[in-house]
Amino acid sequence: MNKTQEPKYEALEDRIYNRATGEVIPDDEPIFIFRGKDAKALHGLREYFAHCTDAHHMAAISQRIEDFKRFARLNPERMKEPDTEELK
Asked: What is the pLDDT of residues 20-30, one digit of tens each?
């Protein structure tokens, strides 16, 4: 996963790391991922932003919101309603 795709975390082999600290996200800690093609992702990011108070974190979220908006504008054919496939 390149840094422009996900600036805060890095996926290596079967683990996800914090890029700044190198800390591994433990196996028992839930993770939720929004994708650019998810038509509802911007709503979730904006709501998350509205509840944050740290200015540095808010600036990072604001940048991600702009990234998601740009992706949607440049790739309307890839946008879709979210779904979940059954695990096999």
From this structure: 999 999 999 99
